[in-house]
Each structure stands twice: as structure tokens, then as C-alpha cells.
User: Which sequence fits this backbone?
């Protein structure tokens, strides 16, 4: 059965009423691409480029990067591949971006903040991405991590456009960006919600600290309301809104995310089949109803419970 299922062409991700929801993979190296395709990835919603260079003492050359990005893009001809520029920070340091000791790395000089201080490195990365894109048939989307407001958005978008990159966005993972989602969506081609960091910052609980791990729950209504505001901004402006945090891999939460306005979901490839199956069980109206119940909940546990109860009662 599984051999047959693996060879049968998958229909694109969708809800029961046919509403399309792209099902994409989160990847950390081009070598993971084939397995993701075999598991049904329709493209890539998050390629974490910093994972390629964690051991590098010097900044990688344009050529070194071009080869890696082209290998990734070539695995997805005609498909969307979303590449995130380097998201370095004290917890995932890149020596060539100037490592610094920080007491609170999550609140430090990371993501776009570090790249802005090292603009030549960012320029080389954008150059390599533009060259790889020109040589491939994939549809390259480029985004920046840890953007907080319109000014940082404009900085990244205009720089990326200098290199001829066509589809440029940001990851919404800082609460400031969720609160200002309308201003940000106006200035981008798309927004991708990073629910791992959005949860850590909304709940003020370090995602790497075991003692506060229970706060790292994207079902929390405070997090869901942040997502809702981003979804509304995207819908109002006709901009795609993806989710690329771990939350998209939870089948029931995936339905809620679509109800909150997510148009595509990116996850570890192993989760794609279960999410695909759950989406097919609900219409958009049902997903929106479940989302409304979840945002009205008073805790993460309550949100899970009301959504599960509504599904088993329907
Ligand atoms: C996130 O923050 O949700 C995200 C997708 O990025 P990372 O886990 O790499 O911080
Ligand atoms: Mg993040």
C-alpha cells in the first residue's frame, strides 16, 4: 500500500471545498530536497541558510553559495522555493558576522539586525541567490528573519530588489511585526509567520529554556491572535501569508492557521501527509469557525480542547 501511495501523484494541498493550501517543506540543506519531494512537498516554505555555514570561519564566497542554492532550486523546477537569508544569533553564531557574548541571545543582535551591521555579507548572499535563480527554473522567494517594522522591511526589500530578486518578503516572528502587519504587508510581496519565535516573544519565554518550555505553545490564544492580525493584513492586501514554524506540522492547528488566514504551510517533510489529510476534512468556513473558537479560548489547553470538541461533534 505504501509503495503504491508513494508512486501515486499527490493532488495539491487543499481544503474539502477545494480552497488551495500549498504544502511546503522546511529544509536546512539541499541534500534534504529529494526526500521532501518524495514525502509530497510542493516546494519549500523555509530554507534556513545559516545551517550551511555554522562551521565557516570566513564568510562564504558568492560562488560557494551559488552552487548550494542552485542545487536546492534544481530540485524544485517550476515550484516555489522560499530562502531565508542568514539568521545568525548568539545561539546559532556565524563567526564571520562577529560573534558576541550576550546574556539574552534571543533578545540580541540576531537576524536582520546582525545582517544590517554586516551588509557586505548580505549583499553577497543576495547576489548568489540572484545568480542561482537566473540559472534555474524554480520560483525563488527570498525573505529576511527577525524584521520588526516598516523601516527594516523597506531596508531588506529595496536591497533585494537591487539584485533583481522578484518575490521578496519577511518572516513575521517578532510581536512588533504582527502588530504592524498592515504596514509590513504593504511593503512586501508576502509574509511568512515564524511561530517558533513568535511564540517565544509573545509569551516572553526563551524557547531554549526547559524550565519555561510549557509556555512555548503556539495554541496559546495570545499567539493565535497575533497570527490572526497578520492573516487579516495579508488578506486585505491580497498578499500570501505562510506559516513556517513548527505549529504548521500539528494537523489540527494547521486547520486553525488556515482559518486565521494562512495561505500556505511549511513544515518538516515527515508531517506533510497527516496535515494534507486533515485539511481535506474541513471547508474554509469550518476552518474559520474553528479559528474563531480557538482565539476565544483562555489558554493553550482550552484552545486545543474546544477545537477537538468542535471537530468530534461535527
Ligand atoms: C520560527 O521562528 O518559527 C522559524 C521558522 O524560524 P527558526 O525556527 O529558524 O527561528
Ligand atoms: Mg525564527
Assistant:
Amino acid at each position: 500500500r505504501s509503495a503504491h501511495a508513494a508512486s501515486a501523484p499527490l493532488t495539491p494541498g487543499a481544503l474539502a471545498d477545494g480552497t488551495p493550501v500549498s504544502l511546503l517543506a522546511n529544509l536546512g540543506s539541499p541534500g534534504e530536497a529529494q526526500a521532501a519531494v518524495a514525502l509530497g512537498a510542493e516546494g519549500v516554505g523555509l530554507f534556513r541558510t545559516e545551517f550551511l555555514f555554522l562551521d565557516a570561519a570566513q564568510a562564504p564566497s558568492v560562488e560557494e553559495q551559488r552552487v548550494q542554492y542552485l542545487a536546492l532550486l534544481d530540485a524544485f523546477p517550476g515550484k516555489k522555493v522560499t530562502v531565508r537569508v542568514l539568521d545568525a544569533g548568539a545561539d546559532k553564531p556565524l563567526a564571520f558576522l562577529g560573534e558576541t557574548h550576550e546574556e539574552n541571545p534571543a533578545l540580541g543582535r540576531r537576524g536582520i539586525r546582525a545582517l544590517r551591521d554586516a551588509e557586505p555579507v548580505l549583499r553577497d548572499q543576495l547576489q548568489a541567490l540572484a545568480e542561482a535563480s537566473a540559472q534555474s527554473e524554480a520560483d525563488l522567494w527570498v525573505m529576511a528573519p527577525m524584521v520588526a517594522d516598516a523601516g527594516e522591511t523597506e531596508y531588506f526589500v529595496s536591497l533585494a530588489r537591487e539584485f533583481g530578486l522578484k518575490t521578496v518578503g519577511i518572516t513575521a516572528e517578532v510581536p512588533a511585526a504582527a502588530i504592524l502587519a498592515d504596514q509590513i504587508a504593504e511593503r512586501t510581496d508576502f509574509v511568512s509567520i515564524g511561530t517558533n519565535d513568535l511564540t517565544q516573544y509573545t509569551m516572553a519565554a526563551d524557547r531554549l529554556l526547559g524550565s519555561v518550555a510549557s509556555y512555548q505553545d503556539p495554541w496559546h490564544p495570545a499567539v493565535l491572535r497575533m497570527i490572526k492580525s497578520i492573516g487579516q493584513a495579508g488578506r486585505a492586501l491580497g498578499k500570501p501569508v505562510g506559516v513556517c514554524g513548527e505549529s504548521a506540522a500539528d494537523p489540527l492547528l494547521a486547520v486553525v492557521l488556515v482559518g486565521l488566514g494562512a495561505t500556505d504551510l511549511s513544515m518538516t517533510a515527515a508531517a506533510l501527509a497527516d496535515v494534507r489529510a486533515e485539511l481535506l476534512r474541513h471547508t474554509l468556513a469550518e476552518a474559520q469557525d474553528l479559528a474563531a473558537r480557538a482565539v476565544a479560548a483562555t489558554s493553550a489547553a482550552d484552545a486545543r480542547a474546544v477545537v477537538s470538541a468542535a471537530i468530534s461533534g461535527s
